[in-house]
Design a protein that fits this description.
Blueprint (H helix, E strand, L loop, with lengths): L9 E2 L1 H11 L6 E6 L6 E2 L2 H13 L4 E5 L21 H7 L15 H7 L5 E2 L7 E4 L3 H5 L13 H7 L3 E5 L8 H6 L6 E8 L2 E8 L6 H11 L3 E5 L2 E7 H15 L12
Parallel strand pairs: 1-3, 2-4, 2-7
Antiparallel strand pairs: 4-6, 5-6, 7-11, 8-9, 10-11
Helix pairs in contact: 1-2, 2-4
Amino acid sequence: MSAPPPTGPLVTRGTLAGELRALGVRSGEILLAHSSLRSLGWVCGGAVAVVQGLLDALGPDGTLVVPTQTADLSDPALWENPPVPAEWWPAIRTAMPPYDPRTTPARGVGVVPETVRTWPGALRSAHPQTSFAAVGPRAAEVVADHATDCRLGERSPLATLERLGARVLLLGAGYASCTAFHLAEYRIPAPLVEVGRPGPYGWERVTEVSITSDRFDELGHDFERDRPVVRGTVGAADARLFPVADAVAYAERWLALHRPREEETAYRRA
């Protein structure tokens, strides 16, 4: 039995670039993109065409930034999708390769970020679990000095993107994927957790701010209601465009109101 033909729309590098420009992506800007390839439709050239279209819209002076997180470099005791037997945990901790920004693949963020990670000239930040990759003239500035004990806080690319006036593009991705909201978690009272991960000298544990994307969809709904967010369609995907600084400032106020201290124990995750 043959597979049904694709329903489209047909998306190409050129249509992507044109629709991104129509949405409001500006030549020369810095763009933090969260994307879903599947949401776009039938993309001629797949993830490569998406990256090309994004870079075309940004032009030679623009910089594309994506999350290249590696959630699998974590304590196997916390794995849920799927879990692994408890008797495996010590062996996994011993054998897990440490993070290498040149070779460690991104995990759980989609095929477009992994394509950016391997793009010619791409640079990647140093944090072993929450790195970012960037392509463009400001890439080195964006990914520099990502402290290995600061996942998504003041010493991460998110704070640099805020300072540089970058914008967020949600391309078929929801607000649950909006990493900019996490920067706000570092600016409000938040619990600390011990995070386990492979290090250059074996298994290590570091103290970090507890982060979670729980309720980010609700936060994003209110943000979009109260603040100017550019909305449109790129291919078949819903797209949203807004400044990193606006998202962080709104999230600081929202989280302080909607995550009271008595709820914080529910957010203790490593």
